[in-house]
Specification:
Blueprint: H1 2-26, E1 29-35, E2 43-50, E3 63-70, H2 75-81, E4 95-103, E5 113-150, E6 153-164, E7 167-178, E8 181-225, E9 230-235
Parallel strand pairs: 1-2, 2-3, 3-4, 4-5, 5-6, 6-7, 7-8
Antiparallel strand pairs: 8-9
Length: about 240
């Protein structure tokens, strides 16, 4: 009887100790969380629902693996009055979201979020999008890698992949821009649109008007301008 009591006591002690460790660990990693979060949760492997991540300066969430849902009633105000180009491109990310992110707007409070996987929203302003993003109005990110489709604008410092929008603007492009207005300081690839502009490029410009200061490739369009000549239809 005494032996059974000792075994029961030790089992209860270690069980309680283990549960306490699980409880402490759960403060750091959980399967569900509302956003923003100011407690000790740092990683979510599952589902997040809320307004975003950086509304509070002491927001603790650093990584989400799974499904992220953001329903932000202020999206229309950001769309009407906010201009992310005034802040410049963020230099690093503080929050990483891997998986599927659906939002009314990945907006200015999330400007240092790195998205990997699928991103769907009306507007996006973040550090990076890796994978596929679809945006009703614009995508403003330091890094765009993959396929990015926006209604009115894709704006990036570095774009690697395919950018489709009414207006595409990238400082460094490795891939393809398709839109009515395309601009890139330096690109390797293809620009296809009504008006294409680049400081220098390697590849081809296809459009109604093509303009560049330096090229290694061809221009195909109604009027083509480079540092050597202005010429209709085909320029090199």
């Amino acid at each position: 009887m005494k032996t059974n009591f000792i075994i029961f006591f030790l089992a209860s002690f270690f069980c309680g100790f283990s549960q306490e460790n699980v409880r402490q660990d759960s403060l750091k990693t959980v399967v569900f969380s509302l956003t923003p979060r100011t407690k000790k949760v740092q990683q979510i492997n599952g589902l997040t629902i809320g307004l975003g991540y950086d509304l509070f300066p002491n927001s603790t969430i650093k990584k989400v693996n799974g499904l992220n849902l953001e329903i932000n009633p202020f999206t229309i105000l950001y769309l009407m009055f906010d201009d992310p180009t005034r802040r410049g491109f963020p230099e690093e990310s503080s929050v990483k979201i891997n998986g599927l992110s659906i939002a009314t707007g990945h907006s200015n409070q999330n400007e240092d979020v790195a998205y990997s996987g699928w991103s769907v929203s009306l507007i996006n302003s973040g550090f990076s999008c890796n994978g596929i993003s679809v945006n009703g109005f614009y995508n403003y990110s330091t890094e765009l890698n993959g396929l990015h489709i926006s209604g009115f604008g894709n704006i990036s410092r570095n774009m690697n992949g395919l950018s489709i929008s009414f207006s595409n603007d990238s400082e460094n492009l490795n891939g393809i821009q398709i839109g009515l207005l395309n601009n890139s300081d330096c690109f390797n690839g293809i620009q296809m649109g009504i008006f294409n502009q680049s400081s220098k490029y390697k590849g081809i410009q296809i459009g109604l008007v093509n303009k560049t200061k330096g090229q290694k490739g061809f221009q195909v369009g109604f009027w083509n301008i480079n540092n050597k000549r202005s010429f209709p239809f085909l320029n090199w």
